[in-house]
TrEMBL record, chain A:
The keyword Oxidoreductase applies. This is 2Fe-2S iron-sulfur cluster binding domain-containing protein. It holds the Pfam family Fer2. PROSITE patterns: 2FE2S_FER_1, 2FE2S_FER_2. The keyword Cell membrane does not apply. Keywords: 2Fe-2S, Iron, Iron-sulfur, Metal-binding, Oxidoreductase. The lineage of its organism: Bacteria, Pseudomonadati, Pseudomonadota, Alphaproteobacteria, Rhodobacterales. Residues 1-77 form the 2Fe-2S ferredoxin-type domain.
From TrEMBL, chain B:
One of its GO terms (molecular function) is oxidoreductase activity. This is Xanthine dehydrogenase family protein molybdopterin-binding subunit. Residues 37-140 form the Aldehyde oxidase/xanthine dehydrogenase a/b hammerhead domain. InterPro entries: Ald_Oxase/Xan_DH_a/b, Ald_Oxase/Xan_DH_a/b_sf, Ald_Oxase/xanthine_DH-like, AldOxase/xan_DH_MoCoBD1, AldOxase/xan_DH_MoCoBD2, AldOxase/xan_DH_Mopterin-bd_sf.
Length: 176, 726
């Protein structure tokens, strides 16, 4: 089936089998292997991407459902030598070990900070109406859909805290 | 040229003399920018022209014979073939170096790989694999439960020293209990994957493996080809934890299919297949006995275990590994009984032995301390032996006392109260402690080091970096020894054509591969000293300038071309003459819900004595990993086998619960300043498994201190706690 995806700002026309997941379309058809396949079941978060600005597990969606959609993958954030603030903070804080869950962690963090910025509450928020603070507990809760078996969680949380302002936590700052 | 060292005697502490400052620094990983941008290439991410896709077919019965009917699927779109030749039963055991069992048409457990379906695309191959008709002839003698009717293979050489029964009878205080642990899965985030490509008789395998020096032999042996014709590439490995020590089944399947089709074939294991066809950690039942006098001095230790495996695996979980050396007591008895079951094979998962053995031993020590009426730290310190309590060898270094006492100070152990004394709302709060010990190992290892006149260097070995920090530390060692900044060193790993390293496993990587790099660089230092006209011990190297014997010359002036040296390390006499072990202490503070029994780990501290710490940043990450695996073993992880079929019921990451971010409280890590002179020329010891040893026991001991419930059956899920709450 013919579809067009806007990936990292670029229109990409594809002819895909309807069984192809969005993740496999990115990895196998567009050769964007930064998004990882850890479980193919939406259980591990390694394939997290931004779909029209919101984080999703790309393995749980079929490519043909996304004709015309805007997708941001890890390749769209920064490159070696030109890292985004989150990427640089992950390196500095050793927010990974083997690196396999890392693109998913970073994309999830990117989406998570936007959600926080929009004032979305989480299961650990004290109040459902206040704009939640970027506490360690909020980060832990909101990042719990991204497994890291190397268990770099402390470094991941620190990296997110370090990069949050640069990543544009505007509303939170304004509220302070 | 080769710089060779057999570790027969203590070597000078050269790394305390060098001045570059590349080592001991918390350097970020040099490959980090590739990992955070998604440009590091893992096994399944290589693309080759004409590449076909394979999907494994799993056995649908527990025991019997099978026959596939390829005609049932040959008309499906994209069909290229179905192959059963040379299929291996499960992944190879760590350091096997030979083929795993190749059972032909026999099925020995549910989920066993029996064929690979190959097609033009992944989606086609998956559908073909699921549609393939397989005819089974089941046997009726499958056994899948570790009960009394199972057949056990006993370790007849198990130690029985003194008279433990008498010691228990005469003891002022004693503990005699049974503990159980469920099977564990390594659950590395990257599923096993192989891309096989033939060029005539030469096979290139891009795969996700930990020990290329063994894996190439396992692949060659499984295929019946000469190892000289096998090249394995694993530059990036998405986690291993033991699951990629040995060659995995899809290596052989991809190679067989690629040969038959005359085109490259890629096979990626489905997550369910990872849970079934890759070795997992056995379940265990453990009987621990402790006896002591009125003051708490141990008089006896017993540690007997029951576990399970498939026949012909030749591997048993060394449950009592640390028990042999951790505490004194003259009367000691061990025993090991392995049930032969038709279930997925057991093998190495991070810290085989200590990961589960230390849960029981350190819980028992906690119980004993309470009976004696002394602090659990005092009980442990009191029983630290002067020498190995069984073979009498001296310890190469022993940091347990420092870890327990310095750790207690840092953790605020003095604030610990009696069980159920501390409550915050509906949460009981408690603290626990446990010792850590992990035998230190050294393996033969080679690495090539090349220094260029422009002050850059290259390190090459077939060693892997599975997240452990190999790229970082090997570069730092070379930089320190050669007196150049670490960013001037390129490290090439994960290619079996490079000099043979030790492979990643057994926590021996840094010590073994690192020492080979150290030696290669030492060989280069000798040559530079000759050229400078000074003795090697006078040579000082810093920022690309050599100084010695009243001479001071930049490297560029001293060298007319690259200098290349191979370092070759062999374990030697110090291995036999000394007991070498890392030691540590784990502390945990938990909250236990007084209504539901839910446990939350609020904070942990690991105090580690592991010799010289090469890079505190990557070492800290290894210990974090151990602590969090401790949370998993204590609270969340356990494979459930269907008692009728042996099926791994929770064979994915939704049902097998590895700790998630919110499961982890604040983690603290401290390293005790130590040099282990007997260990290797760098005085380092392994850290990756030490961080897990005992970590879970600190948590369950804290659960008792919080709410008064002793958990002896792991994991300590709420159902095992709340029925016993008041």
């Amino acid at each position: 089936m013919q579809i067009t995806l806007t990936v990292n700002g670029e229109d990409r026309a594809l002819d895909v089998d309807p069984r192809v997941t969005l993740l496999d379309a990115l990895r196998e058809h567009l050769n964007l292997t930064g998004s990882k396949k850890g479980c193919d079941h939406g259980q591990c978060g390694a394939c997290t991407i931004l779909l029209n600005g919101r984080r999703i597990n790309a393995c749980l969606s079929l490519a043909v459902m996304h004709d015309g959609d805007e997708i941001t993958t890890i390749e769209g954030l920064g490159q070696p030598g030109n890292l985004s603030p989150l990427q640089a903070a992950f390196v500095q804080n050793d927010g990974y070990q083997c690196g396999y869950c890392t693109p998913g962690q970073i994309m999830s963090a990117k989406g998570m900070l936007a959600e926080l910025d929009m004032g979305w509450p989480s299961n650990v928020s004290a109040d459902l109406t206040d704009i939640p603070d970027l506490t360690r507990t909020e980060i832990r809760e909101r990042m719990s859909g991204n497994l890291c078996r190397c268990s770099a969680y402390p470094g991941i949380c620190q990296a997110i805290e370090d990069a949050a302002t640069e990543e544009g936590m505007t509303k939170r700052e304004a509220a302070e | 040229m080769t710089e060779h060292l057999k570790m027969d005697q203590v070597q000078p502490r050269l790394l305390d003399e060098t001045e570059q400052g590349a080592l001991h620094a918390p350097m970020p990983r040099p490959e980090g920018p590739l990992k955070v941008t998604g440009t590091a290439t893992y096994a399944a991410e290589w693309k080759l022209d004409g590449m076909a896709e394979g999907f494994m077919v799993r056995a649908g019965i527990t025991k019997g014979r099978f026959k596939v009917d390829a005609s049932s699927v040959e008309d499906m779109p994209g069909f290229l073939g179905v192959y059963t030749d040379r299929m291996v039963r499960n992944s190879a055991q760590g350091t096997a170096g030979t083929n795993p069992v190749q059972p032909g048409d026999q099925v020995q457990y549910l989920g066993q790989p029996i064929a690979v379906a190959v097609a033009d695309t992944f989606e086609q191959a998956r559908d073909i694999a699921l549609a393939l008709k397989v005819e089974y002839t089941p046997d009726d003698d499958a056994h899948v439960v570790m009960d009394d009717s199972a057949t056990y293979e006993d370790d007849d050489d198990a130690l029985d020293q003194g008279d433990l029964d008498a010691a228990m009878a005469d003891a002022a205080f004693s503990v005699d209990g049974m503990w159980t642990t469920k099977p564990h899965n390594s659950a590395a985030m990257e599923p096993h994957a192989t891309l096989a490509q033939w060029d005539g008789d030469k096979l290139t395998v891009r795969s996700s493996l930990q020990m290329l020096n063994y894996n190439k032999h396992e692949i060659a042996d499984s295929l019946g080809i000469d190892v000289k014709n096998v090249r394995v590439l694993s530059p990036y490995v998405g986690g291993g934890f033991g699951s990629k020590l040995g060659m995995s089944p899809e290596c052989v399947a991809a190679a067989v299919a690629a040969k038959a089709l005359g085109r490259p074939v890629r096979v990626v294991l489905h997550r369910n297949h990872v849970f079934e066809t890759i070795v997992l950690r056995t379940e265990t039942r453990q009987r621990v006995r402790l006896s002591c006098d009125a003051e708490g001095k141990l008089t006896g230790i017993g540690h007997e275990n029951w576990q399970a495996n498939l026949p012909d695996e030749g591997m048993a979980e060394p449950v009592d590994l640390a028990t042999h050396l951790l505490y004194g007591g003259e009367n000691r008895r061990y025993g090991q009984h392995v049930a032969m079951l038709n279930r997925p094979a057991s093998g190495s998962v991070r810290a085989p032995g200590e990961a589960v053995g230390m849960l029981a031993l350190e819980n028992a020590m906690d119980e004993l301390a309470e009976k004696v009426g002394i602090d659990p730290i005092e009980l442990r310190v009191k029983n630290i032996p002067d020498r190995h309590p069984e073979n009498g060898t001296p310890f190469s270094s022993h940091g347990l006392k420092a870890c327990l006492e310095d750790g207690a100070e840092r953790f605020g152990w003095s604030q610990r109260q009696a069980p159920k004394a501390r409550r915050e709302g509906e949460w009981y709060i408690g603290m626990g402690v446990a010792s850590a010990a992990r035998l230190n190992l050294l393996m033969e290892s080679r690495a090539r080091v090349t220094l260029n006149p422009d002050g850059t260097a290259l390190v090459q070995t077939d060693m892997t970096d599975i997240g452990t920090g190999t790229y970082a530390i090997l570069g730092q060692i070379a930089a320190e020894m050669l007196g150049i900044p670490a960013e001037k060193v390129t490290v090439e790993l994960g290619d079996s054509d490079l000099p043979e390293g030790p492979g990643s496993g057994g926590s021996w990587g840094a010590a073994s591969a690192g020492s080979a790099v150290f030696l290669g660089a030492k060989g280069i230092r000798k040559k530079l000293a000759e050229r400078l006209g000074c003795g090697a011990d006078e040579l000082r190297l810093q920022d690309g300038v050599a100084t010695g014997g009243n001479n001071r010359r930049p490297l560029a002036e001293l060298m007319d071309g690259p200098i290349s040296e191979e370092g070759h390390l062999e374990p030697g006499q110090t291995d036999d003459d000394f007991t070498q072990s890392g030691f540590g202490a784990h502390f945990a503070e938990v909250a236990v819900n007084a209504v539901t029994g839910e446990v939350r780990v609020r904070r942990m501290l690991a105090a580690m004595a592991a010799g010289r710490i090469l890079n505190p940043k990557t070492a800290q990450s290894q210990v974090w990993g151990g602590q969090i695996w401790g949370i998993g073993t204590a609270l969340t992880e356990g494979i459930e086998h269907d008692p009728r079929t042996g099926h791994v019921v929770n064979n994915d990451l939704a049902e097998y619960h590895v700790p998630v971010n919110l499961d982890v409280g604040d983690l603290d890590v401290m390293f005790i300043d130590e040099r282990d002179d007997q260990a290797n020329p760098m005085q380092v010891k392994g850290i990756g498994e030490l961080g897990l040893s005992g970590a879970g026991a600190a948590i369950t001991n804290a659960i008792y201190n919080a709410c008064g419930v002793r958990v002896r059956d792991y994991p300590a899920t709420p159902d095992r706690i709340f029925p016993h709450l008041d």
